[in-house]
Please model this.
Amino acid sequence: MQTILGAGGSIGFELAKELPKYTNHIRLVGRTPKKVNADDELFPAKLSDPKQVDRAVSGSAVVYVTIGFEYSAKSWQQLWPPFIKSVITSCKKHNARLVFFDNIYMYDPDFLGRMTEETPMRSVSKKGAVRQEIATLLLHEMAHSDLDVLIARSADFIGPKNSVLVEMVYKNLLKGKKADWFISADKLHNFTFTPDAAKATAILGNTPDAYNQVWHLPTDTTPLTGKDWVQLFANQMDMAPQVRVLPQWLLGMLGIFIPVLKEFREMSYQYDRDYVFESSKFEERFNFRPTTPEAAVKAIVDGLSV
Model:
C-alpha cells in the first residue's frame, strides 16, 4: 500500500497518476478524496487529528506528504509542526517509509541565485520558519532514527494549480489584461513543472537507496526572467507580451482586499533577486530530463480549463 496524505492538491493528484507504475494499492487521503485511478482506496480524514493520521498511515509501505494547509502564517504555525510530528510517529509505528514534499522557503535568501541540496537554511519569513522547523525535524530523523525518510524539494510551480504563472500571467493575458509580476521582471526565476515533480517523487519513493537524503526535483534551468516567461505565454497565445510589475508597497495595499497577497508579501524577496533552482543530482542519478519551459507553457495553454 502506498498512501498520499493530501491527495486533492496539485501534486497529490499528479502523484496518484504516477503510482500505478509501482503498486496496485493506492490510498488517497484527504477531507473529500476522489479517485484518480479505478482501484484507488478513498480514505476521508481530517489530517490535523493525530488519530486519523495514524489510521491513514496504518498498512502503508510508503507515505507521501503532499498536503497543503491554508496559505497563512498563522495556520502554518498552528497546524504544520504537530501534523508532521504525528506523521513521523505513525510511520515509525507502522514501519512505513516517509516521503515529504517540500519547498524552498527555509533557504538563506543570499543563496537563491544557485540553490542546491547543500544550500544553507536561514528563514526570514514566518512561513519559512515553519518549513525550516519541519526540515530540521526530518533531518534529525534521518540522522538519529531507523525511520526511512526523504525530502523531495521543489521550486515554485508551473502547472494548472497553485501556480503564479497561471494565476498572474496566463489568466490575465487570457482576459486581455496585462500579466502581473512581483517586484522585478528582470530577475531570473525558474519553475518546476508539476507533472515532472510528481513523476520524480514517485521514482524517489520507490527507490530504496534514495532515502535519508534531500533531493531537488527536476527543474529546467534555462535562464528566464519574468519578462521572458510572459513572452513565452504571449507567443503561445499569439498575443502581445504586456506586463505590469507590482512593487512590494502595492502588495501591502492589495493585501487588504486580496488576503493571499497579504500572505505573499513576506515571501516577495524571492522576486527581487535571481532565483535559480538546480536539480542535477536527481537528473544525473535517474537520467531524467526536465520538461522545457516552452513545452510546459504549451501544455498549460493547450490543456488548462479556466
Remarks:
- The chain has eleven helices and eleven strands.
- The domain at 159-190+222-275+292-303 is CATH 3.90.25 (UDP-galactose 4-epimerase; domain 1).
